[in-house]
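pasting for ref
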Amino acid sequence: MFGGGRAVLTRVMAQPQHAFSFQHVTVAEVDGRPAGMCQGFGFGTPGGGLALARAAGVRSVRAGVVALALLPAVTALTRHAQGEWYLQAIAVVPDFRGVGVGTALFADAFDRARATDDSDRLVLDVERDNHRARALYERLGLVVTSTSRRAVLANNVQVQRMAAPLDTTVR
C-alpha cells in the first residue's frame, strides 16, 4: 500500500512516545528465533498517525484514501476509553502457531496492562470474519462488546471490539 513499507514501518517504530513505537512491542522467541509479537498500550498514549505521516511522506496521501474507504472500521479502531489497555496487534509466525506462543503473548499483555495504574480491562479489535482469531480470544476470556458499521467501500469489512477484565487468568 505504501511502497517501501518495511522502511516506513522501521522509521515509524523507531520514534518514541506514540502508539506505533517500539516501546509498546513484545517479541516472543522460541530457540532464539522470533515466533510472534504483540503491541499494546494504555489509554492516553498518543496516536501514531503523525509519526506515520512523517515516515510515509507523500505515500501518506494514498494511506488517507484507503482510510476513507475503511472509515467505519477505522473510526471503531481509534476509539479508546479511560481504563482500557489496547492490544493493537498480535501475530504469531505460522511455524509457531498452535504451540502456545499466542497464549504466552496474551499473558504478557495482561501482565503489562496490570502494571499500569489506570487500566481495568484489556481490549482489542478483530475483523468480524476472522473466526480463528476470535475463537482464540474467546477461549482466553474476551467477549465482544461492539461491532463497527460495515465499510461498504472496502468489501463490507467490519471489526468487533472485544474486552476482558484484567483479573482474567490466561491459560
